[in-house]
Amino acid sequence: MDLRKIAASIPDYPYFLTIDELNASTRRLAADFPELVSTRVVGQARSGEPIELITIKGGPLQAFVFGGPHPNEPIGTMTIEFLTRQLCEDADLRAELGYTWHFIKCIDSDGMRLNEGWFKGPFTPTNYARHFFRPAPFDQVEWTFPIDYKTLHFNQPLPETQTLMNVIDELKPALLYSLHNAGFGGVYYYATGGDENLFQQFSEIPTWFDLALDLGEPEVSYAEKLAPAVYKWLSSSTTYDYLAQNGVEDPATVISGGASSGEYAAQYGSYTLVVELPYYDDPRVNDQSLSTTLRRDAILQGLDLAEEFDQWINQQLALVRADLRQETLISRAVISFLSMGKDYREVERKWAQSAEETNRPATQAEVFSNLLGNRFYRLLLLGMLARMLDDEISSGNTSENIRNSRDAARSYLIEQGAALEGDLNYRALPIRSLVGVQVCAGLATAAYLRDSQK
Predict the structure, then answer these.
(1) If you average pLDDT over residues 297-309, what whole number do you get?
(2) Which residue in 82, 402, 411, 441 is deepest, having the highest Cβ count within 10 Å?
(3) Total of domains in the chain
(4) Are residue 247 and residue 381 in the same domain, yes or no?
(5) Global pTM?
(6) What's the pLDDT score for residue 453?
(7) Cα–Cα distance measured from residue 79 to residue 431, given in angstroms and rounded to the nearest whole number
(8) For residue 292, what are the domain limits?
């Protein structure tokens, strides 16, 4: 398998496809390759929209790939666009890998439709935040699988999650590829395991597309590192234990969702892969030179920035709370993330103040993660606040308080977005590069698993 040749064949994508465009593309693929491609409805979204599984005939191993595990993450839908057609067109590749491939282009179509406002650009952090939506944890397809762990008991899978469970139960896949992506930074991975050769490929593949590894702070402080920018697949049980170790009496009161797809598929011995990719980067995301700031101080400053953002949002909510008339996916997300952010910041602050690994000079990448990356992600919550209040007004709510807070949120978003963009040396990354890393890393992992079973 010539991964470099496959990498070179990935086309330039000027924008992300909408759900309707993805569905139309599936129809064309099935019409072009009727002898290889079959489709069937395997479930329904909460809105009633059908969830379709695409199957491409191949060998005895089973690979299950799904996009949109969070609906603000459309890179994976484009990865599936490329990979499905590539597998159909390249018989030698199908034969060499030895898999039958199964795809769901977007598992949360309802949520992804709420993100389509930024899919065609302009690709700036401020425009992304203006049209951004990410569900509350208990509304996330990826994190509402059943779990019973100590005091954590969750068994309320969403309809989309139940669909994933049914497909995993049927296929018992050797490879489960959940196509996530991040927002700002560099490339990093979550994996069930692997060896030195696979991890070396993970390190090299981004360089083919002029992308950097993310060598700053991990997404969560308790992530177990397997190699540079490669972490062991996260689980709700490890989150639970981390919270307990840092003073939370009952972590189940903080964790508002359930388990992940990888945790669920573990019962079948499935290997789970996630390739996290940003929309934007900055030269500092992998700068390993030392700063004059203690890592501990950088983490605490980042927590203070998050607290400042959330306080502003809470103040606006206090002004309008009595006038709110509806509950939506966006309003549920805003309220949930504010509550969860407060809980997790208290734990992170305690960890940062006491952990020995934070008592050293921070790298420039770590400073960037804590101070600038943090500001980017808080901007997204601010954008959702503005959308939440927009929805109230659109539904006919005539409250002057809501209109004033909506206008304040819009203005603050523009102000903070401009300030952040001024402090960054960012570039919007080519979609083909992002797709390329996911495609090549997924194929490399499929080959690794194939060889491991010989």
Answers:
(1) 97
(2) 441
(3) 2
(4) no
(5) 0.97
(6) 83
(7) 10
(8) 285-425
